[in-house]
Amino acid sequence: MTEEGMSWEAVSSGDGGNWTRPDGEVMSPPDVDLCQVWTGVAAEVWRRRPGPAERVAARLLRSPGLARALVTTPSLLLGWVIATVVVLAAGAAATLGTGTPYVALFAPAVAGAGIAYAYGPGIDPAWELSQSMAVSDRMVLLVRALAVFGLNAAVGLAASAATGVTGSAAALTFGWLVPMTAVCALALAAATVSRSAYVGVAAAMSGWTIMVLAGKAAAGRLTAAITDSSLLLPYLAFAACCGAVAWYATRIPRGAS
Amino acid sequence: MNVELIDLTRRFGRTHAVAGVSLQAGPGVFGLLGPNGAGKTSLLRMMATVLPPTSGRLRLLERDPGSLGPRRVIRRRLGYLPQNLGYYPGFTVTEFVEYFALLKDMPPGRVPRAVAAAIEQVGLADRAKAKLRTLSGGMLRRAGIAQAIVNDPELLLLDEPTAGLDPEQRVAFRAVLRGLGEWATVVVSTHLVEDVGAACTDVALMDAGKLVFHGTPAELIARGEGSRAAGDAPLERGYSAVLAAARSAAGTRSATETRA
User: Is residue B82 part of a domain?
Assistant: First the structure.
């Protein structure tokens, strides 16, 4: 830092840290590593302050990495959430107009698509890189899937409440959570096995459509798939099977060593 | 040894991407050369714990990546730049590097300073707040390198790191590599022979999934001396001579096996 012929003068200041050259330019003391100082300044200026949702998630999950992965979930981004609300609001409007519970019919498919788009190659741009990270990608998938499921359940229930549909808690649970769980598990299993969100979405949409149409063919009602209580156990069993498939597909490959 | 590979193989269906590679590497810059499809990327992905080997033994940082606990420890001390770096277009350079620092389980208090240092090291300080979608290919590559080095890795794996960099950036990057190689093991897969000559202490050459040469850049140059191998530079001639010899030997072996 010293230059030939330049006299350096320490100018006493309140904090004792300022050094000036005779021309008045403020310099650092010779034993200060300016690179380190600059890095510290840059770190403060550039750092991103996590939002409230991320801070809460970091506390709950006890992992800032997992929390950041959660808030970057493609199907939890504002655009996707707005699209979900719009679809279910349209379902609520149709329900009010026709009396058919379209919200309950739409919600499982919408949630399934959200789950399929939560994590995976092609959806998460840096998916390969994420696989080499200390925070397990299976944990990322699990946390994102649960968050997407929770959000869709909340939006769906709100849309259902807006239609004024009332019923017992058991009927509501069956009409919502159980078929939705089965469709979401199918989407997750298909997406993880095929490593393609598009396959996951296709499986969820077509699976749910087949279920609804099969219910109509068998019982003569479009709503049979969400009102027939005999389907409760098959839905749960199917969801468990799909969950097991997804768990196996995302197992940590041990490889040979 | 930070990297120990013993008879490592990786198959994709009937294709042997990596066919019995044995290798050891300590601190230093290790260049991995070879033509397209030689198996460099598969080997690097196995070392990055992204791809499990089909058979053989793999030890990284004196640990077995096949077990959950050691794998996590390895990943905390690993830096990896994949060939096709995906990025989040809406992230800034800082957010991108910070995201991976957090996923590497770095203590949150250390992250901002480490991110700033990594961004400066790759010369992106003036674009630290720029969105990734506004950056050129070379700048994106440098952002990728920044995320790879943010945790001061003991094992750094770089797949085609200089692709898209201009000559000035490549020279600067080689200096960064040499600095990192003083205490870490840096494995660089590249097509660019001059990168190896300028930055690497060791070099290995792969062809058809096999390691056909392992030595110093000077030894590779020596292989090309006096031969009629193609190449404008001594290292390129060495590269061509080793490849030609390996293919000739493989052809002879194949013909013998066919006759038998």
Answer: no
Does B104 contact A65 at a Cβ distance shorter than 8 Å?
yes
The ipTM (two decimal places) reads 0.84
Q: Which amino acid is at B148?
A: A
Question: Quick one: B178 and B108 in the same domain?
Answer: no
What is residue B52's three-state secondary structure? Answer: coil
A197 vs B contacts (CB less than 8 Å): none
Q: Which residues of A189-212 are buried (b: 16+ CB within 10 A; e: fewer)?
A: bbbbbbebbebbbbbbbebbeebb
> Could you tell me the sign of the dihedral formed by the alpha carbons of A248, A253, A254, A255, in that order?
positive
The distance of A22 to chain B (nearest Cα, Å) reads 31
Would the CB atoms of B72 and A134 count as touching at under 8 Å?
Answer: yes
pLDDT digit string, tens, across residues B127-151: 999 999 999 888 899 999 999 999 9
CATH number at residue B67: 3.40.50.300
Pair B47, B159 in one domain? yes
Domain encompassing residue B206: 3-77+155-259
B119 contacts chain A (CB < 8 A): yes
pLDDT tens profile A147-187: 999 999 999 888 888 877 656 555 666 677 899 999 999 99
